[in-house]
Amino acid sequence: MIHACTTDMALGPETKICLAPMEGVVDAEMRAVLTAIGGYDRCVTEFVRVTEQTIPDHVFFRYSPELNNGGMTATGVPVFLQLLGGNAKWMAVNAARVAQLQPPGIDLNFGCPSKTVNKREGGSVLLKEPERVGEIVSAVRDAVDPAIPVTAKIRLGFSNSDDLEEITERVLQAGANELCIHARTKEDGYKPPAHWHQVSRVSAQTQLAQVPLIINGDIACVDSAEQAIKRSNAQHIMLGRGALRMPDLAMLIKSKSKAGRERTPYQPLGWVAILQTLIAYLNRSTNEHPHFVGNRAKQWLGFLKVTYPEAETAFQCIKRLKGESEVMTALNGCLGQADF
């Protein structure tokens, strides 16, 4: 559980860093690799879609194989299991089933902007109905052992942020243990910029309720992490695309905190280490998803080339390759040619 804190709203030793639940990107293999680099205090799974039926345990284990390790990654970072759905009763029923598997926490998704998800009454479309959001959080909170945190992830709103205060109040009154806000509306999607300052409107509400506030959106470097904290008045941050573009971003942020300055300065990873990290990730993926190794390699290189020019060269080497072995051979060839 991330505890609320009273700070000057800047990066410090109290600042916790969460890894965002990016659908189709941040799976168990990615969580394992990124948390091994370090800096993360929490991960959240991709969402498990809840409909009007009970979900078998094997589905929860598929989304969170960390449940076999006490809900922790191999390096001891807790992984909350995320549920998405619009029916309070069935969300509660399935949350209770999840709770029997003893996850470190359960997160509720009210932020997914996908049209397909929204058409099925899930994700950010629920922000149009603040009362319904509150009912879902309340039903889940009541269905789960109080020892298991129930957290919520929202956006500023659907088409605008007019209801942000009411949505926040409903979530708080329903008993959520934490609130994470992606500082964009549904209609904003992922277009820059994120509107961190809008989140500051509800910081007093969360502080009064003693519920930690987490800011998410457009945190791509140490400076933007600090600015996000200051402008939002949140206590903690969640990294999404920034973590894929710079795999050691969490460590870089931690190194700038007061606690970080008391340790040996962290040395950023160079391209060789990043490429080794990519290959390690693909080796993990080979065991679970051998047919998708090529797509996963291209996807992550697409993120990496924003920060590392060398990633473009690696991408060009594999962009027409499909088979697992030829992709891995090409990437290992790039590693052999890299300057150590």
Structural class: alpha/beta
Q: How are the strands of the biggest sheet laid out side by side?
A: 1-2-4-5-6-7-8-9
Order of helices and strands: EHEEHEHEHHEHEHHEHEHHHHHHH
Give the fraction of residues assigned to helices.
40-55%
Would you report the number of β strands?
Answer: 9
Beta content? 5-15%
- Amino-to-carboxy terminus distance: 40 Å
Summarize the structure.
The chain is an alpha/beta fold and 340 residues long.
Question: Would you kindly provide a written description of the structure presented here, covering whatever features stand out?
Answer:
The chain has 340 residues and is of the alpha/beta class. It has two domains: 17-261, Aldolase class I (TIM Barrel), CATH 3.20.20; 271-337, Bacteriocin As-48, Chain A, CATH 1.20.225. It is built from 16 helices and nine strands. The chain has helices spanning 28-37, 57-63, 88-100, 115-119, 130-143, 164-173, 196-199, 203-208, 222-232, 241-245, 249-255, 258-261, 271-288, 293-304, 310-318, 324-337; strands spanning 17-19, 42-44, 48-49, 79-84, 106-110, 150-157, 178-185, 213-216, 236-239. The chain has an eight-stranded parallel barrel, surrounded by four helices. Strand 3 (48-49), helix 2 and strand 4 form a beta-alpha-beta unit. Helix 13 (271-288) runs antiparallel to helix 14. The protein is globular, with a radius of gyration of 20 Å. It starts with 16 loop residues before the first strand and ends with a helix. The relative contact order is 0.12. Mean pLDDT is 93; it is low at 3-8.
